Amino acid sequence: MKVHFIVHEAFEAPGAYETWVRERGHAASYSRVYANQALPANADAIDLLVILGGPQDPATTLEQCPHFDAAAECRLIGQAIDAGKAVVGICLGSQLIGEALGARFEHSPEKEIGQFPISLTAEGKVNAKFAHFGEVLQVGHWHNDMPGLTADATIIATSEGCPRQIIEYSKLVYGFQCHMEFTREVVELLIAASERELATLLDRRFVQQPAALRANNWDEMNRKLFVFLDKLLEEYSVAGAG
User: Fold this and answer.
1) Which of 36, 48, 124, 241 has its CA at a distance of 20 to 30 angstroms from the CA of residue 65?
2) What is the mean pLDDT of the chain?
3) Are 93 and 179 in contact (CB under 8 A)?
4) Is residue 57 within 8 Å of 94, Cβ to Cβ?
5) Who contacts 127 (Cβ-Cβ below 8 Å, separation ≥6)?
6) Domain limits, the chain
7) What residues in the chain have per-residue pLDDT under 70?
């Protein structure tokens, strides 16, 4: 399988997704837009498109961030969805999926940074791709916003601080506001990029400081992400065969 990553910043790395790609023997390609690498012209050579997070939001303009072209990414996402590809967005990526489908992103009720639980909804508990999560799962967070909802979207998981943690837009398209790709290495990159901001958030109930961030264990979360991805690509293969 061919997995293509859109990477917005060096410190918003693919993390556990790369581990999964390597362990499963898939092929990875990248658009590191922070390094001015181009987006693919289309999704023809992609099986799974993964759009990572970033400090931007879908309303960020090229004037504000010259390497981030939200409209171009939304066009590629829309083309991938129309072509029946598997698509997963993380944080900013989840918001861009919503935008590509006509659903505007919104601000989350709470800023969340660190490891906090998500709870599966009734729909999430009976969804075969997420049943292995259990009713509650500790996952990573680093966000201010959340994805918009289309008329057909299903909320799979929520948290106390954000009502839209995982969204199913279709059987092949998912938005993760949470960061299940976090590893110790990825979190170190984020801490290095955000230490000044973190120092201003001491009073936020869903914001962990560097010592607590470094103490988190992400292994179970990563393993459950891998099972989800395996199930997603199995569905993609079946859909393609059909």
Assistant:
1) 48
2) 97
3) no
4) no
5) 154, 156, 168
6) 2-241
7) 241-242
Question: Using one digit for the tens of pLDDT, what is the confidence trace for 40-98?
Answer: 999 999 999 999 999 999 999 999 999 999 999 999 999 999 999 999 999 999 999 99
Note the CATH number of domain 2-241: 3.40.50.880
212, 109 Cβ separation under 8 angstroms? no
